Amino acid sequence: MTGKRDYHHGNLKEALIDAGIEILDEVGWDALSLRACAARAGVSHAAPAHHFGNVKGLQTALAAVGFTRFRETLSEFQDAAEPDPKIRLQAAGAGYVTFALRHPGLFKLMFGGADLDYENEDYREASQGAFAQLGEIAAPFLAPESGPEEDYRLRVTIWSAVHGYTHLLLAGKLWEMSVSDDGLSHLPDLTKLVS
Question: For the chain, which domains are there?
Answer without folding.
Answer: 1-53 (1.10.10), 54-193 (1.10.357.10)
